[in-house]
Amino acid sequence: MLSALRVIASDIKLAHTVFALPFALLSAFLAAQGWPATSTLGWILVAMVGARSAAMGFNRWLDHGIDAENPRTRGRALPAGRVGRTTVAVFVILSASAFLVGAAQLNSLCFALSIPVLIVLLGYSWTKRVTAGSHLVLGLALGLAPLGAWLAVTGVFDDRPWIPILLGLAVLTWVAGFDILYACQDHDFDRRRGLHSIPVRFGILRSIRIAAALHASMVGLLIVVGLLSPQLGAGYAVGLTAVALLLAYEHRLVWSGDLSRLNVAFFNVNGVVSLVLMAAGILDVFRLG
Fold first, then answer.
1. Domains of the chain, start order
2. By C-alpha distance, which of 13, 12, 20, 9 is closest to 275?
3. Is the pLDDT at 34 greater than 80, yes or no?
């Protein structure tokens, strides 16, 4: 079982929880206007890891047949036979349970919202079968993290709702943008297989422009967050400038339609984006709080 868990954790790229988690932590610190309770941070971490693991595990379980046909993904654990579907299903159930337990430990509002959130997280995996807007659904799934972390700290919808909502929308546009870039790799396969995506509908070059527009929207939303939050100042502005430059670099790598450096753009740059913004924002919370 431990060997199977290691295989699954590697296959779902557990380390990529870093994409949404820093935004959730930044939201928690802004909600607390300082350091949140250690127990709250711990249960946020449990809920985040559980939620993402359940969503990614379910995606691998549901798409195992499609992954087996796609040359890019046929090496994944399920189609390659390194782990069985029953094992992955158990992993999904345990991960979803961890998410629900974490939400229940935070407060009653988080627990009440955990079921509809779980439906969004798992439902994303079906969307590419029916709509090119699947990238936005994935963005929504991750974009709920800052709002959830805010509610984990406050326990209520307080008098500052626009800050976590705008943070969530920023994550939505950011994730949708880089998921569109990622989907460009599967343009030919998805078209033949009858799957839906922005690249299938609009072509690779136009999709890269759409992703750039989404990322520009993300930067604009984060600027508004900085203007609305008294806990954010010059440090956040410097961090946001770095984020904008990183995104510009990401798009420079793929702007011509050359996808050979896409993994550099996707994995390295986007991982740094969330960490830089979190660090800059949290430092400002303590500097100006």
1. 2-288 (1.10.357.140)
2. 20
3. yes
